[in-house]
Amino acid sequence: MIRATVLRSSTYRRMPWKNGCGETVEIAISPEGATLSDFGWRLSMATVATDGPFSIFAGIDRTLSILDGNGMSLTIDGEAPVLLTQDSAPLAFPADVSVSATLPDGPIMDLNVMTRRKGFLNRVDRVDVDSRVTVHPAAPTWFLLCHWGTLTVDCSGEHTDLGPKDALLLEQAKGTDVVVSGKARCFLISIDPI
Hints:
Layout: E1 3-7, E2 13-16, E3 23-30, E4 41-48, E5 52-53, E6 60-68, E7 72-76, E8 82-84, E9 91-94, E10 99-102, E11 108-116, E12 120-135, E13 141-155, E14 158-162, E15 167-171, E16 178-193
């Protein structure tokens, strides 16, 4: 049976980065009460205010999206830099290789989805809603994060209103019809067990 949990931005947990060079806002983590060394999956937002290295997470894959600000240039494992902006598609890369960030035009806030490589796969899609859209979660664990604007989400007869940075977690969501209405940008996040 589907289980829906509303996650309000005002209740997210704030904590220092693993490398101590910034602050992250944790949206959700599994299993509940997990630490940075033993989670199966984790969703968070972080403000990046200075150039510098990313924290290393052994055995983890991450997908990064820009929520606020004018972009961030990433050098991943010695490859050519990639400029990530609010208009860029979410970028997936290993979290256990050397990554350094450069801010060409001021601080940014990012959305970070991390999954343990031997246990889960993640997929992140950005969707602009302008009236109404029906989505069909393809994974048993599925999030809708409202980036900006306001949304009403209808699922299994339940109605939920989301504001900026609020999220809805659906468990046992695969095969469900989710109707999203309003005017907003949102991120659809799928967590699939391997």
